[in-house]
Amino acid sequence: MKERLPFRFIEPTFFSGLLDDPLLLLHVRPLGKSLLFDCGQLHHLAKRVLKSITALFVSHCHMDHFMGMDTFIRHNHVSPKTVDIYGPPGIAGKMAGKLSSYDWNLAEPSWCTFRVHEVAAESVAMSVFTGANDFVRSSAGEEKRTDATVYRNAWLRVDAALCDHKIPSLAFRITERDAFGVDEERLAGEGLVKGEWLRVLKRRFYDGEFGGEPLNVLARRGESIERHTVDDAAALYEKIRKGGKPAGIGYMTDVGFSRENLERIVPLMEGVTLLVCECSFLAEERDKARVSHHLCTGDLNLLMDRLRPPFVLPMHLSKSYQERSHLVYEELEAPAGVTILQLPDHLTPRPLLSCEVPTPVRK
Fold this sequence. Notes:
Oligomer: single chain
Order of helices and strands: EEEHEHHEHEEEEEEHEHEEHEHEHHEHE
CATH superfamily of the largest domain: Ribonuclease Z/Hydroxyacylglutathione hydrolase-like
């Protein structure tokens, strides 16, 4: 994904071609860590990329979205860290099956912990798999969902909605936190002058500590500039802040085009900057899309018209279009202000042929 997108804290990379298993990586620049959305084939990701991942978000456990978990485990199981995994109900049992299929007799107490969150409509159940306990599953409780958010850090939050793909499948929305910004016209309108106090206000903004001590600002009084004390720094910031909504990314794959799904998807995705969305079939095979609970080009056209995201990345095209992938882009009709980003057919390495393997040399 080479297109420069208007994100402040996150750097998205789509590690798949149009016909490959979808893999969206979000590098959180201030943290130096990453989030991964879906986990199909990922053997082509560098080890340092895989080790930078602190949380995975799995839409559902079909093979092309979950089989790469073995590779992820392979590169992270000896690391002394905790990895959070979010997925639909049942994913903890799938993780238990993967982890129990290996022998862990050489496990060390410092090995990784996988913390699995099963996201249901009204609750999130947690299970823990620790290396010190041979990755045997143990329950970590259950929490009620009070809103759409399932994960957050200091720089973003991830919201999720449970959709239907003949099985539960999660759609995700990533929203950057508000960035500090001051409108100079508003600043002047309030009679304020730039100074060190703005750096103090910015620090309080990012620390989440607007309350507390009063803020000393610089204010213009006629021809002179005087110090002035403001008791409510949060209210002052609202008066001088620069407008604009935080940037966001929508990630949606393997959902049927149904009224029920749309009622969940549209509110979740409204206002996103980039929509990463499956487009598995051409319009002529709409019936096949309906039977398999996937989207076709006509469905994505309707979503683009409804949501009007500045950027759209179609992905996860059916492999039956191996020689006809260009037709997808010909059928997509971007409304005014919407830019469609185009992928190559494949990014994953081609499998080796036997004739390409070097013959061992006799010493």
